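Notebook B, p. 112. Complex prediction, attempt 2.
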Amino acid sequence: MKTKNKYSLAGFLFVLPSLLYFLFVFLYPLILSFVNSLCRVNLLLGTKDYLGFSNFRNLLSRDYFWDSLCITLKFAVMSVPMLMVVDLFVADKLASMKGRCGKILTTISFLPFIVSMAAAGMVWDWILDPSLGLMNALLGAVGLPQPLWLRSPESALYSTLLITLWIRAPFGIMILMGGIQNVSQDLYEAASLDGATPIQKFFRITVPLINPQLIMVLTLETIFAFRAFDQIYTSTGGGPAGATRTLMIYLVKDLFNSDYGMASALTVMMLIVMFAISLIEQTLLKKKVEY
Amino acid sequence: MRFSKLAVLMVFAVSVAMSPVFSAGSAEGSAASDEPIELVYWSHYSQSPAFVEAFADSVELAAKNLGYDNVTCRAEIIEYSGYEAKYITGFTSGTGPDFFLGYPSDWALNGGKNPVALSFDEKASAAWNEALANVYYDHGIFNGERYGFPSEGGSLQIIYINTDAMIEAGLDPETDIPTTMDEFLEVAKALTKRDEAGNIIRSGFQPRYLGGGDGVAGKYIAWFHNFGARILSEDLSTSQGYVNSAEAKEAFKWFQNLVKETSNLELGAPESAFQSGQAAMINREAWFADDTVQKAPNINFVCASFPAGTYDYAPGSGSSVWCNMISARTKYPELCQEIMAELAKPEYDITLHESAAYPPVCKATMTLDNEYFGKQLYAEAVMNMADKPSCPVYDLIPEWSQIASMFGDTVASIVGGADVDTELDALAVRIDQVLNQ
């Protein structure tokens, strides 16, 4: 065997496990979802009747689908900016802290990310219980109004935002903190000599220079917001009165068990929408990044 | 070229190596030999592992009594959340059980959504048709064939009443139990406790309105049916003119008023409100009696029959009852059929239910002088309801779970104060969007 072929074979063998993993774990389910979205599927019988785009048409004709889409968009529009602001603010503060205190606070701020989202949903369900929960006990103690949190259709979605913020913020904070710590101190010193205020330094130096990290967090949080499920499912089950029935809740609770083809159609639609949003975010914001 | 041949060979080798992982099942088995046979039972009753184990124990006992000393049964609990998907995955991959718990309409081999349940043979069908109490006779039958038997007799909604609250309100727990809708409203009002500012601090009646719509629907449907309302037409083809009929609107308006007059929704789930003494009345299935005794021994209560309205159905949830069935993919179909027939005997009705204090399902055991059933707190209430006509059942169509979710969401909206007419008219449109596809 020629040396070149030997190297090719060795290279192929090294890549093979990853290739197989990619094919079976990522590509195969993806293709299967596309195929199933065009069929009436019975998993047990192993039958697939080709329906064309009927599943998509039927889905789009349902008010219930549009309600879930609106709830998901509302959730995404509120959660993503909120997370970005909190992540950026906390990351900047933590990055500026020196010594043991900074390390302890950084560790503490990362802890919620370790907790499973399902467990967090259940714990927060208790914390936010209107009559027995810790939150209303604290609010009551200082004389503030005590909302119904997860128990009211009006406040349930906002309450799930609070849970999401608690779970997701550490992820963004860590990414952004890494970016901030890599910004050269020389730039800040030069800005100080020029008389820049801390706010000016933050917006003119920090934010532009961590733009790659910001875009990454923005993209990932957007995708997460569209896929949000665990913490909502365990804390509200999609209720009350369907107020927190996001697309993922609709997909898993209502569609998956009764209409696998339509569930696949919704999966494909979500995939396309999330891909498009990510692409737009990456394209539009990347142009502004260059500094 | 040598390279591509090698690649093909490697893929082939990997496939051969992996084949045991994906292969499933084996040749048909026979119980007659002395080789040990392990049957497997799947149930999603994760709230009561003892109840699930009781089925496995009863199967072993039945097998032994039939002369099969080599048969054991292993119970596996499948978590309730998303259990259907887990079942499908198991059945599809060939790792499914011999017996399992589910709705016949979902799993029946003849016309079920996911056809995997074997219909009972002549002997097992006859045994269960003879044994079951009237109210449970239809449950387990799909498309005219029996596919299973109800796992427990606790599916009827029972009214739980705090007797200390009754005495406090000047009511007699022996004689002032409400039997009609009007009486229920009056008793609920009397049991409602307010603070000086007029805020309700103990609900006279606490409804279920939290969580997913399907769960909410299951607890409300009995009220709805007893006003003569239906969610779907008799042929289950439409909801227009049914879920928004005059009877349906009357039922919802009555319930909305009941909640407005007697409930504090801030108290949350009815079960925890009742067990903490914050609600005086709720409706729930029979299992809740023992649950309350265990979790809240300080709460004194009685179980009462569901009140009658213009109609007086046995207060079911609009769905079939969970049934124990046989998988068509079992290696021992004949043995499973024999065991199912044996389990129809009254003595097993006790071993199946005693560990969880659930109501039995056979008419021979559902009597007040039965040693087990007679001493249960819910016995009289269940007895009184067992001979009532069965309420409408809708889960014979695969769209039911989606419709139940929608219906429950509407219940929660109306409980929260939404306009009944508007909500029900919108609901009818939404349900028909699903039914017409």
